[in-house]
Amino acid sequence: MHSSGGYHNQWPGGQPPQNNDLNQGQFPNGQFFSPHPRAGLPHSSNQTVTGHAYQDVNYVSPYGSQPQPQVPTSGVDFQEGPAPLDAPAFSEPNFATISLPIVEEGYIPAPGHEDDDAGIENPYTTNRAPYWESDEEEEDDDDWEKDLEEEDFLRSLAERNNDSDDSDFSIEDEEEDPDDLILDGVVDDDAEETRKRGRPRSSGRGRGTGRGRPRGRPRLLTRNNDGSTGVRPKRVKIRRGMNGRPKGKRGPREVADPGPEFKDLQRRANDAYEASQYQQAIVYAKQAIKKNPEIYASHNLLSEVYDKMGQFDKALEVLIVSAPVKRDKSLWGYIIDKLYAMDTRRFPLYTEKNKDCIALDCLRGILELDSNDLKARHMKLDIEERLGHHSKCVKQCQLILVLQPERGDILKRMAMQGTATQRLTRIHLNKMLEYFDTSFAYMMANEAPQESNLDWSLLNVYLDLLNLSNVYPKALTRARMLSRWIQGRKEETYWDDYADDREFDLAAEPRRTAVPQFSLVSDQYNYGGGLPLDIRIKIGLFRLRQSPAQLEEAMRHFEYLEPEDESPTAKVNSFGDLFREIADAFHSLQFDQEAVRFYEPLYTRNQKEMVLKTFLGLHTCYSNLDKLSMSNKAADIVQIFLDWKTDSVKDLAVLAKFFEHQGMTEEARKRADRAYKMRGFRALQQVGFRGLSEVQAHGMREKRRANWDSTRKAVRIRKYLKTLREATRSGTDPDNDSSSTVAIVSRPKLGLFRKKKTDVDPKPRRFEPVAEPATFAGTDVPTEAVASRAWRLKLDDLAQESPEDLQAARTQHREIEASFSRLRMLQEAADDGDEDAASEFLSITRELLEEFSTFDLFYYNKKHKFRSYFRRVAHGELWKDSALMMLAVAANRVEDGQEEPDLQETPRTQPNDFYGIHFDEWLDAFCMYAILLARNTEDNRCFRALDILTRTNIFYWSQKSTHQIQKVRLACALALDDSTQVSVAIRWFMRTYPFSSDLFRLYGSANRLTTLGEGFGASAATKAFMRYIKAMDYALLTPAQRDRYNFQGDDRTKWYANAVQSGIIKAVKGHDPALFGLFGHMEGCTGSSHITALNYFYRAFALTPEDPTLNLSIGIAYIQHAMKRLSENRQFQIQQGLTFVYRYHELRTRDNIPVYCSEAEYNLGRVWHSLGLLSDAIPHYEKCIALSKRVREQEILSQGGDGSTAEDFASDAAFTLQQIYALTGNFSSAKTVTEGTLVIE
User: In terms of CATH, what superfamily is 1113-1238?
Assistant: First the structure.
């Protein structure tokens, strides 16, 4: 929904009607007046108050009725109550503006509203920051120490006030934000405001939100009678002695005498003011305020003085500071009037936005005093709307609706603000619908239809919200009922008994007259004739979007638009938005022919109503209808897309996907590149753009090129500055150094010359040519091995600066070569099981692994391929270690008389060795290391070593190396009985060789070899297989079927885009029953749901109905589900399961293969055994035992040997029979079975 015009700017009749009681969100026009000139604003042309006057306010300056301000002669004359003890004192003479309204000490807000005011951005800044910023933002933890110093004074004050009532303080006064007492609304304007000042919000400990005190000044500690400290309690009256109120004077307590010093300062300020000595009056007034900031008269006097001096900004600031002391709504209203009267040209700091922010603080002060002040709430709503705080506008609308539920204009404004973005719609939609329903119920119960604010325009807004909620049955019911009420037919509830919309037919015959309760004498305008067209279309759309779609009834409504009308007065010219909505709805539901009926009138007569989505829908419909004429029209729309101009990232992403689908690669690439540069990576990913990886790579190359250009520019600048210093800092410069030969007599003028830093002793410069060395320092490596002169000099400097490191690298190279030589000697013995050889192999390889894993260049970023040892990364430091290593290897090889070294900075081919040892040999050693650790059952060290290998950019980008690592991981996982690592290894193979049936079978078989199998149905594995199934389904569906099965939701964006980009969709050849069966086992074996498992078993069954294992799985799933406590109709489910189990038995024994027959008999016996029917299980166990001889004979014939390796279930069946007989007391039969089958000869 657009912020100014609703969702897609579709509001009935344009903008909602303005507030009848307000003028553009301001208080009604009216000038705040004071009976005395001094109380008002100075008579100046730039101080006129208009548009923002807080009407019905009668604030009178305390100096208006007297010729001069007078200081009270006693404390009784001061009628203002004491201000909070933390009110600011005017210690700074120059202040610019005011912080947020002061909060009473000890204030605790309602739960969940601690930071309602903390999110308001403070956009105005000044050099006099302490008076701009709120106490929340400026306060530091050091304030706690200052508060402790005031403890004694506060405690004595609390004891003094214990026995008397404070007329200016009550428990209600502690509630800072009255909104929290009325409505617990959701305010989420993170996307609207950016918090630029103060501490960042955190969910951890500290001064955050949540339960407890809000941010700001902490509650002070008090000392208890026992010497301990605690939080100061709220000021609650303590009653002592007898029950009831003690005798004494009633009413507010007398204000404490401010003291003679304060009175003297106030008197002097009054005298100076009367004598027009305003500067002196300011000094005395500030001293009086500093002495006692709780007396409002001093603040007001200071404000009057600033007014007389024409410093209206300071006068306003003083009033805002003192307003919490006065606690008067009229004063806050006077401040608002004066605020908006400030001339922005004279006071640039008071911009319109800053005025709104300050006015919000003032309005908060009014609402603290009276939470039901509707004028303040309306003004706050208008300001929040101007500032773009959508969520806060929604909250204010809801608060107003609590007090005035009949306000239809507020309902419309709430709907506009709450649906300004998709995120706001998701947050506020349900709550807004609740307020609409509540207001409608109030209007229908207390108002007549002809006088109610519940009219067609408000109903249209409400139906828009219901449409966004996707609850179409409710939307249809509410649309019919509310339309009936607006037409004055609320008693005609009998129409609800009919499933159609006959009551809104334009003609009474034939459908409406068929209703017995209907009378022909009724006014036809109160039925179909009085129903607005936009409401009728929405009802039709709700019909269309029912499940299943009610096409015939929806078309009755849509036909009123007369799409075939080609006259100048055709409805398509006036209601193009309705045509677009209907066509898009038909297109989304695959009614292409009907969609074209409403698309084409727009396309031919009202294209200005068409957006990109509309043209795409029309093109898709033309393509799906597959007619020659339609194909030509589709080609015309493609030309429109080629000429489409847009700066929207989403539109560019959609166009890129469209052209990619059409095979127009160049056009797709242009728009994708542009979208990517506009930070549209997510948009391209969501639409499933296949060339995203290429676009991303191209963008990264351009970014690196731009960075390189900026780096070259920085180098040129540094060279220029160096030349400039050499040209301007000669040896005779008196500022250059202390040894100058020119004496300084005097400077021409202070500040004319900048003081320059003394140069560090520069290195002597050589002007004669210097011969380059023949070899690198400390080595016999010829410098001619490096072609680039700059790189040659850099390597030589490194060798000269780090001779010790170079020598250590040469020694390290010798040791590594010796280590690998020893490993080659030990490998065969260690592989054969020699414990000493294996122990030494592990010890040597561990040190090599530490050396390899601590070489930072291999682990800097595995997403970037390893290309050279001289890559400058991490501020240019990593290349030094690798350069020393390369120099050391080259030096040792030259010393040994081997081939000439190659030390090029950018080699033509990627290096394939480390310390002179090939990467493959390093990998073989590490894999052997992991296998030996697995033999020693050191599972943690084994898999951590493999993880280290997969993180390096050497092996990460080599499929061959990674393949070897994962094979070793699988072997070690099987040896260590680790199902989780088995799953990890096989899932890598599945990603590398997607949709391979053999890998699906391997996953199940390998996990079957582990004891527990906790990794088989783990959450990560389940999600991975679910994505495979979704990708397979999507790849095998036609475009029309994809839309029908709703692949367009948010869920698609999480897997489909990645599936398309990775290219696994191309590997789909058809539905794979192995995948369906495996996922069914994962769902069933993990105990999550046998019903879900049956869903995928049946999908596999549809492909391979003769698979014995699949039939057994279906049967067991039914039987196990029947055993659940909440299962219904157990008998029927068991019968279904037995049907599939016996079908499995039939399929398995059909070929009369002994081993299969033995398996079938044993499994059938287990099924009956699990049901507790032992008499049915025993015969099958006995048949299984009897087949043992045939199984062994078959094994001998097919495999040779003595048949001991045959897969014989006889021993399992015999053991089960033994347990059955023993538990039932038939020990003789148990003995017979044991001696016959279980005794090992």
Answer: Tetratricopeptide repeat domain (1.25.40.10)
